[in-house]
Amino acid sequence: xxxxxxxALRDARHSxxxxxxxxxxxxxxxxxxxxxxxxxxxxxxxxxxxxxCDWGALDQLYERDLITDPRNKARSAILxxxxxxxxxxxxxxxxxxxxxxxxxxxE
Length: 107
What we know:
Elements: H1 4-21, H2 28-41, E1 43-44, E2 48-50, H3 55-63, E3 76-78, H4 81-94
Antiparallel strand pairs: 1-2, 2-3
Helix pairs in contact: 1-2, 2-3, 2-4
């Protein structure tokens, strides 16, 4: 299995933390979009996704009703119906063209 989504999540989390610590202004809408797309890429078992993202970003998605409450014992977050639709839209807009033709797709 490809570890790129997990690596991207780890790198995004470290970059976000560094930006916040440096006092840099943060475009939270872009972060929300990136995190939601990464959750989509790590989806398994009916809209469950690995939640290895920054807690602040997950909380923002929860407040927007795109995922269920991420602060539970499970190691995954569950995308809501709206969250799933938005994540799929973002994936198709930004990443679907990057998938090689011989790779398995979601459809």
